[in-house]
Design goal:
By secondary structure, this protein is an all-alpha fold. It has one domain. It has 13 helices and no strands. The structure holds zinc ion (2 copies). The site of one zinc ion has 7 residues, from helix 4 and helix 8. One zinc ion binds next to helix 4 and helix 8.
């Protein structure tokens, strides 16, 4: 644990050299690294595969990401088959109908305690995705390190990178333990989003036929993608 802050800090410094939310970037890298290791382990080690099957595999995004590793379609097939077999086992063990059907519960007015009493207890696919857990843990560490080193250090690189996405800013505001840090992270994003809003204004204005002769700047052209990334998080292909 003792070397974690400095390792995370180094990851942050690297991530801040790119445009876009550094916390999204670090989280995705951590999940990717985890998938890389689990892909090998879960095929060669039965205990590791049993653990994966027990958690019902990965979520949609991380299951698809397995296929990005070159030459690993066979390993993915072995993993997915184990989970499919687990799904078949679970289906078999549910051959008797529930006492009160879901339809009756909906007719009863979707009363929440009743609804919960008849829903299946097994997690849905991806419910307990271990890659998501790894991603979230590393995102939390990245936000803590960012806040710790923000003032006088990472504030300017964060501004140049375009700040955090909405979700990670909310987390950062919750974790900001000093008013000065809370205010600093808030005002950085006010500035970035004000500038982005102005770029969107210009993009929209210049699409008007009366102003089409005015050249679009790179920032104005990219403003839609930036807004999507801020509002929904950075995605691998954005
Ligand atoms: Zn983010
Ligand atoms: Zn996941």
């Amino acid at each position: 644990m003792s070397d974690q802050p400095s390792t995370t800090y180094q990851h942050l410094q690297k991530a801040l050299q790119h445009s876009g939310c550094p916390v999204c970037r670090i989280g995705k890298q951590a999940a990717h690294k985890y998938l890389d290791s689990i892909l090998y382990e879960s095929v060669t080690d039965p205990n590791s595969r049993a653990q994966l099957v027990n958690s019902f595999g990965f979520c949609y995004h991380h299951s698809r990401e397995l296929l990005d590793f070159s030459g690993e379609r066979l390993a993915s097939a072995i993993i997915e088959q184990s989970i499919l077999r687990e799904a078949m086992r679970r289906l078999k063990s549910k051959q008797s109908p529930p006492k009160r059907s879901l339809r009756q519960t909906f007719q009863a007015g979707m009363n929440r305690p009743q609804y919960q009493s008849v829903t299946v207890t097994d997690p849905a696919p991806g419910h307990a995705c271990m890659a998501c857990a790894e991603q979230q843990a590393s995102e939390g560490r990245a936000i803590e390190a960012l806040l710790k080193h923000l003032i006088g250090d990472l504030a300017v690189p964060l501004q140049h990178a375009g700040g955090l996405c909405w979700t990670h800013l909310q987390l950062a505001l919750q974790l900001a333990y000093k008013p000065a840090i809370y205010n600093a992270i808030g005002s950085i994003h006010e500035q970035i989003w004000t500038a982005l809003n102005a770029n969107l204004d210009e993009f929209i204005r210049k699409n008007d036929y009366r102003f089409r002769h005015e050249a679009m700047t790179d920032e104005e052209s990219a403003s839609i993608e930036r807004a999507i990334a801020i509002l929904t998080g950075e995605h691998p292909h954005s």
